[in-house]
Design brief:
By secondary structure, the chain is α/β, with parallel strands linked by helices. 28% of the residues lie in helices and 22% in strands. One of its GO terms (molecular function) is hydrolase activity.
Length: 334
């Protein structure tokens, strides 16, 4: 997918000076469908099935033991509403259900929250609530808007926990690809003044108790991560589009957006679930080493001979869910 620089409309919208073509619904303005947003399970399947003929798109059919609460507005920017869907076990345990907030991928400029519906359903069947969220993509608002949106989603889940039978003290953030980077950064900078613009807004925290990184960038600044940004004659990489410029132009931003730079004592534990694609593992081993030196918990699960976006498909979704549930059982104390 070719990265595109944000349009003038996207820049103006990010500044609150313009609105895209849209439809009005219940006081919320929805952006018009973006024809460049082509990252979804069906298109990814068509690219991967030749090499992996045994795969199939993971089912999004809702089973009888899962309850769904759709289209919940979790944050508003003027008339622009961002929404999430909740997937809940039909029978909530006493004390509330732990919850995983799922952040979709798509190179920061594409993707849909429906990406994580199959995983959300399977988590709910295993006793975890799950929230799939939409957030502002790069064409609408660049870095750090998606990170701010993700923290807002965590705050919404915590604020509405009792209504939905959720335990507000057992929240995990998880994401795939670009969503993993966004989730990790949101989690590691939660409630930190200077990073979290809403940290002083009230008593509702955006802190989480665990992180699941599914094949996502942890360090934008490694040579491997920057290789696709430095090819002469090629347009800016998706990362450069989101971060507002190439590495040579925005070094401080590329460093600030890298989750590896926020390793510290007392940070949430992280599960890394990785494909066999080296590009998406860049920086992970160094981050694990830094975490170990600071007494933080890190686990790594690698799925051999897998493409990026493996979590969209069976047979790979199930081991992804199994690893996630095992990690969360251990670290959220179900």
């Amino acid at each position: 997918m070719r990265a595109q620089l944000p349009s003038l409309t996207g820049v103006l919208l990010a500044l609150g000076l313009a609105a895209p073509l849209a439809v009005q619904a219940a006081g919320c303005v929805e952006p018009a469908p973006d024809p460049n947003n082509t990252y979804d399970a069906e298109r990814t399947y068509s690219k991967q099935v030749r090499r992996y003929p045994f795969i199939h798109i993971a089912s999004a059919a809702v089973p009888s033991n899962v309850r769904v609460v759709r289209d919940q507005t979790y944050v508003r920017y003027g008339s622009r509403c961002l929404k999430l869907d909740l997937y809940l076990p039909a029978q909530a345990p006493r004390g509330g259900t732990p919850v995983v907030v799922l952040v979709h991928g798509g190179g920061w400029n594409a993707g849909y929250r429906s990406e994580f519906v199959p995983m959300a359903l399977r988590l709910a069947q295993r006793g975890y609530a799950a929230a799939t969220i939409s957030y502002r993509l790069a064409g609408e608002a660049g870095y750090p808007a998606a990170v701010d949106d993700t923290r807002a989603a965590v705050r919404w889940v915590r604020r509405h926990a009792e209504r939905h039978g959720i335990d507000p003290q057992r929240i995990a953030l998880a994401g795939g690809s670009a969503g993993a980077q966004v989730a990790g950064l949101a989690a590691l900078t939660a409630d930190l003044h200077g990073f979290d613009p809403h940290a002083r807004d009230g008593t509702v925290s955006s802190a989480v108790q665990a992180i699941v990184n599914v094949d996502g960038t942890v360090d934008f600044t490694t040579e491997e991560s920057r290789r696709h940004d430095n090819e002469p004659g090629k347009p800016p990489s998706p990362a450069a589009v989101w971060l507002g410029g190439r590495y040579a132009e925005k070094r401080a931003v590329w460093h600030a957006a890298s989750p590896i730079n926020y390793v510290r004592r007392g940070m949430p534990p992280i599960l890394f679930i990785g494909s066999s694609q080296a590009r998406f593992q860049s920086g992970r081993d160094e981050m694990v080493t830094r975490m170990a030196a600071r007494g933080a918990v890190a686990r790594v699960v690698l799925l051999p001979d897998t493409p990026h976006s493996f979590w969209l498909f069976d047979p790979w979704l199930q081991p992804t869910v199994d690893a996630t549930v095992g990690f969360l059982d251990e670290n959220l104390g179900r």
